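TL;DR need structure tokens for one chain.
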Amino acid sequence: MTARILVVDDIPANVKLLEVRLLAEYFEVLTASNGADALEICETGKIDVVLLDIMMPGMDGFEVCRRLKLDPATAHIPVVMVTALDQVADRIRGLEAGADDFLTKPVNDLQLMTRVKSLVRLKTLTDELRLRASTTRNIGIEEMLARREPEADLPKILLVDEKPASVEHLGSMLGPHFQIDAVADPHKGFFDAAEGDYDCVVVATGFREFDPLRLCSQLRSLDRTRFLPIVLIANEGEEDRILRGLELGINDYLIRPVEQQELTARLKTQARRKRYNDQLRASVTETMEMAVIDGLTGLHNRRYLDSHLQTLFDRSTTRRRPLSVMMTDIDHFKAVNDKWGHDGGDRVLREFAARLRKNVRGIDLACRYGGEEFVVVMPDTPAPIAEKVAERIRAEIASAPFVVADGTAIEITVSVGVSSLKPYADSMDALMKRADVALYEAKSGGRNRVVAKAA
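>> reply
TL;DR here they are.
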């Protein structure tokens, strides 16, 4: 695992110690001796994790962390505070400033490396999502972060622990800050995690007849829960189990006895990070849909048709199954735009798409080809059936007027060209060309009609 780690500390000996440990694990290490330099490096360099000292002259670590997390350009960089302060209040202050983790000097090697590696994995995921989103140019990641609103609902936590006393104790600590569901059976916990909309799963060790790491592994192997944060609550002396858990992909751990404020702060951090990544995934999904869906009609667009038609064509030729294409053009659509404006034209296009969608099957591919032209690809549909479908659509369009504005209704008709796959020596381009020629003949022959170029 390789990553760029920024070590921020005003004491050279502390910087050197951390640098040596990180270089031994093949990380690339950058250093800064004050908060201002750290902020500049984070803004200009590709930093994966910041190890940040608190006690520094001028700007302390709390302020550095706060500024990093308030800046949309650096808010996604994980921050681990490393300090000699060992008071609970200091740890909580750091976590509430936005820090993703907290280590106390002298730093335990196990804690240092496991925390850093876990955060590097999460940073890699976030970077991939940010890259996918930003390359579309249809959403603004920084704007999205800048306008984040406070969470309206409490984070939802699933606690998997078979000991009633432990469940009661943890539940009492988390109750004011989270929605808690607790299960004693790890098998039920797996299904609940898969079906429920949880922000984090807390798994306790100490099951009598079950290895809790098996549950963690199962959650990581399932698509629905692959990115769901997992926090392990272990007992003293279970370092090997913790290490194995981190290798399996758990996000964080605590060792009993658990301190309430630290547990609360760590779970809030996990929930916050999950919701941020969920936002990114939703934005990527939405943008991908925007790339292949026509925004006006809700049908697929030509980009999707161009990429998907070849697949349907190849499938039909390989399986020797029929395939038909219907190409339509709304008659005299320019006159609609000229008289009723683009608002009126848009209403006609939306209604036309709705009627078209109503008259084709779920397996048919209906697309807006461009302007007032639409294409329907019909798998497993021979020429005679395709012609009947085209005639049904033509009749449906002509059967009822279209409302353009203020209740005004106008008559709309459509011309349709149909082509079907030839049994031998055909091509996708030839299939589309025949449909286009048939459409031209329908328009030149008087419009409001169907012309079929069968095999």
